[in-house]
Amino acid sequence: RGGNSGYTYKSGKWVWHFTPKSWFDPRYQAYRANPSTYKVFHYNAKAAAAARAKAEAAARARAQAERRRRDGVLVSILKGDFGAGTEKINGMSQAVARFESRIAGETYEALALVAGAKCEENKGLTVCRTAQPMYGRGGTNVGGTYVTRKEKEYVSPKRLQHERVHTKQWNENGFFYIPQYFGILGQGLNPCHNSYEIEADLKKGGYKC
């Protein structure tokens, strides 16, 4: 860096010799201007081993995730991977519930259209407005299709937020949502004590409890 060094043969033996560079030497001036470029790379074996171990662990995790994705429910259980089997069963149940919700919603929309309702999509919610008595209270949500009165108060932003929560509930439960809503889980017809209405926000739903 700041000089010339090396072994020189002197008086019959090799000796270490260091000669400082001249201040005016261009190479010395370059070193003085930016010493960091002359630093020797220090190999950290421990850090390198940790990095390799981390990369290998990530690769194993990716391979395991891919294997679990390809294995079916039965294969996962036979392999003793009950967690993966349960995840797949839950995933299948959720897919079935969403399918049932969609079928119920499309059927309800078709009935509303036949009854003369005007339907439109509103941020994932199908809103049908009709004068026909085909809903309970101020409106009814079946599988993401909300059939209600023609008055504006029943399609206000807050009311539609309330109904979108019911859509989520339908997607989570499918056809089982109906007995759950009216049964012990939902606590019956009284909206002030119905857990599903409480989750959807009673005030946004227009309930005065």
Molecular structure report:
The structure is a single chain. This protein has 209 residues and is of the alpha+beta class. Among the domains are: 3-38, no CATH class; 95-199, no CATH class. It has helices spanning 26-33, 45-70, 73-78, 82-114, 157-173, 177-182, 195-199, and strands at residues 3-10, 13-20, 118-122, 125-129, 139-142, 145-148. A 4-stranded mixed sheet has the order 3-4-6-5, sandwiched between helices. The protein has a two-stranded antiparallel sheet with strand order 1-2. Helix 4 (82-114) packs across helix 5 (157-173). The longest helix is centred in the middle third of the chain and has 33 residues, at 82-114.
Please supply descriptive tags for the structure shown above:
alpha+beta; 7 helices; 209 residues; four-stranded mixed beta sheet; two-stranded antiparallel sheet
